[in-house]
Amino acid sequence: MDPLSITASLVGITTAALQSAQFLVKTIDNVKDAPRTIKDISADVRAIESVLQDLNTKVQNESSQLIRSNQVGPAVENCDRACKAFQLQIERWTKHSNEDAIFWISRWKIGMFGQDRIKTLKGQLNDCKSTLNVALTTATLFVSSQNLIVLVADRLDRFAVVRQKELVKEQKDNILKANEADLEQELTRASKEMVEIEQSLQQLIGSGNTEPDEESEQSKQELLHELERQQAVSTALRNMCEEALSRTVYERTGQKIKGVKATDDGVALVGFINTPGEELNINQDISDVSAAGKGFVVVGVVKNVDIKDLRPR
Predict the structure, then answer these.
(1) How far is Cα 138 from Cα 73, in angstroms, rounded to an integer?
(2) Is the dihedral of CA 218, 219, 222, 223 positive or negative?
(3) How many CB atoms lie within 10 A of CB 38?
(4) What is the distance between the alpha carbons of residues 123 and 128, in angstroms, rounded to a whole number?
(5) Distance of alpha carbon 45 from alpha carbon 121, whole angstroms
């Protein structure tokens, strides 16, 4: 799919998810005597709204591959689905309600499997939000680190210019290292959450009702389905963290070498040539390298090269 189509598709699903979130907030706010557990969802959904609005803006104005990651679209769709699922559940819980209070039987159902479903849906919303935040924050950092500008006055000598560049690189590296630490922390949280979800699934599958009835069994199956959804959403968050971490490390340590060519007895040396060990901390992405007419190209990491030996004789 071309970039324009990807952008249009992502804008479309983001707009739909934003509308679902806004409708859910309105529905919750209109339930005058809703339990606190339901009211608390409103704040979570408002946080989702903010992230979706930011994504809608960024995806139209930036070309970051991270924002167009394979994890972002499904995360937005999961936000949309979770909001709609919770909307439907609230409508079911309040179908016997009057304007002032929720019918007591509905409160009882909320206490039965409802609390677990609320926790699960909140977990889905939180992981969707975290997935999008990881993509947006990391993409923004890349733009910021690449746009660091050093204003060097004409009177500065060459040493001062080099020193300024070193300071900018150090500043950029510190920003990216801080993001790496945040991503590793989020990755650890996502991994722990996946273990907890699996444990909840196994406990629910192994549980039985003392007096089973059709409605309670349906509620149990719905909760199982939502836990499986949460498992998938949590996996997507972990994948997004891993992708963002990989890209952040590459942004800090990587070299992109492309379009190197030597012709007519020419010599081109690009990369780490006779360096004292820096290559141990560097990733290289090398492509489109060629030589013609007795040209000689050295690209990558090379030791003990005498440049004089490469000159034509």
Answers:
(1) 16
(2) negative
(3) 20
(4) 9
(5) 11
- Residue 191 makes CB contacts below 8 A (sequence gap 6+) with 238
Strand residue runs (E) in the chain: 254-263, 267-273, 283-292, 296-302
What region does 101 belong to: left with phi over 0, alpha with psi -120 to 50, or beta? Answer: beta
Give burial (CB, 10 Å; 0-12/13-18/19+) of 204: middle
Distances (CA, A) of 39 to 27, 29, 103, 233: 10, 7, 16, 23
CB-based contacts of 151: which residues, under 8 Å, 6+ apart?
A: none
Pairing type for strands 267-273 and 254-263 reads unpaired
Task: Identify which of 25-34, 104-113, 157-166, 177-186 has the greatest average pLDDT.
Answer: 177-186
Which of 59, 89, 90, 79 shows the shortest CA–CA distance to 16? 79
**Cβ(102)–Cβ(28) under 8 Å?**
no
Contact 90, 31 (CB under 8 A): yes
What is the amino acid identity at position 213?
D
Burial class of residue 21, CB neighbours in 10 A (0-12, 13-18, 19+): buried
Inter-axis angle of helices 214-253 and 72-93, nearest 10? 150
**Of 82, 17, 23, residue with least CA distance to 52:** 17
Q: List, for residues 249-298, the tens digit of each pLDDT value.
A: 887 777 667 777 878 777 777 776 766 655 455 667 777 888 887 777 77
Report yes or no: 294 and 264 within 8 Å, Cβ to Cβ: yes
Q: In this predicted model, what pLDDT tens digit does every residue of 22-46 receive, in sequence order?
A: 999 998 888 777 777 777 888 889 9
Question: In this structure, how many other beta carbons lie within 10 angstroms of the beta carbon of residue 95?
Answer: 9
Q: Give the CA angle between residues 270, 271, 277 to the nearest 5°.
A: 150
